[in-house]
Each structure stands twice: as C-alpha cells, then as structure tokens.
Amino acid sequence: MNDSKFPKLLDYQALKQQYGDEADQSIETSSQNTSQENNALNFEQERAEKKLGLHGSRLRSYAFAVLTRKEYSKVELIEKLALYAESRDEVISLVEELSAQHYQSDQRVAEMMLSSQKRKGKGPNQIKIKLKNKKVDSALIAEELKETDWTEQAYQLKVKKYGLDVTKDQKLKAKQMRFLMYRGFEMDAIIKAISRKPNED
C-alpha cells in the first residue's frame, strides 16, 4: 500500500507533544481541586451535623423525632442523641425521663426483637445475642422465651429446609444439626426436631 495515497490528516504525536502534557496536567489539577473541595465540604457538613449542640427543647424534639421512626434501646438512644447534643449528662437525664414515661422502652424493644427473630426462624440463642448487641437484658422476655415451643420452631425450620423424612444418613443428619445450631437453637430442641417423624406429637 502506498503511503502517499493515504496522507496523514493529523499528526497526533506532534499535537500531543504540543498540547497533550499541558492538557493532561490541567485536567488532573482540576480534578484534584474538585475532589479536595468536595472532601472539605463533606468534612465540614459532617462536623456541623455532629456538633449541632442541641439542648433543652430542641434536644427533646429531636429525641421524639428519632423515637417516632424506630424503637431504640436505652443505650442506643443515648449514643444516638449524644452525637448531636451539647451535653451527654443532659442526654442521659432526658433518656431516663423518656423511659420513665414509656416513650422509650427496653421491654418493647425486647418483645419486638423476639417476634421478628421468631418470624425469621431464629432460635433463643440468636435472639439473646441480638438483644445483648442492643444492650437489652434478655431477662425482660424470660417468660416469653420459656413459653415458646422451640422444638416446634426448629422442626418447622427443618421441614422447610430438608423435608419431612427423618434421615439415617449421618452426614445429612450432621448437616441438619449444624444448620439449626447456626440458627440459634439449643441441642435438646435440635435432636428432637430432626428425629421427629411426620404426624408425631
């Protein structure tokens, strides 16, 4: 192929040498400046949000707004409000007051946790761990935990996952046991659940 028939319309190499480096530096500098400005704005915004210095009626109003959206344990609510409050002592005093007036209730948090975790197929050990993470005493729902038929709960979960048949395969049996243990059931309930035959009381 004859190069003369296909002359170069643009000398890209020459253009790059003439403008490329400057253009690249300009774009890079502009990008860095924009990124630094955005980081600064985000930092300032975050700092402003975390240092509102709420107190008195404004802190109380914010606490009510928080509680209307979600149930918080006492410890969670204190930590949440302390991020925006002027005084941690005022936060603690306010939360104690809200708790005494039943606007905040660890009892409700515990009962809601029990209900939601049971719906998700979780056993008592998992529920206790969840409550501990929220700094809620599981003793608040000791009766409910005691009255729940955890063997039935474990059995229904086993049937849903593995069917009605009682397996004699040791590997499959071990797999079923690990599954139910991971879900938070105790060994006594697990053994009864995986050994239970259909229509057996």
From TrEMBL:
Q: RecX second three-helical domain: which residues?
A: 105-143
- Which terms does the UniProt entry file under GO BP? regulation of DNA repair
Residue ranges annotated as compositionally biased, kind Polar residues, are 26-40
Q: Where is this region: Disordered?
A: 20-40
According to the entry, every stretch annotated as the RecX third three-helical domain falls at 148-194
Q: Which UniProt keywords apply?
A: Cytoplasm
Q: Does the keyword Disulfide bond apply?
A: no
A Pfam family reported for this protein in Swiss-Prot or TrEMBL: RecX_HTH3
Q: Which HAMAP family match?
A: RecX
Function (record text)? Modulates RecA activity.
Give the family per the record. Answer: Belongs to the RecX family.
State the protein's name: Regulatory protein RecX
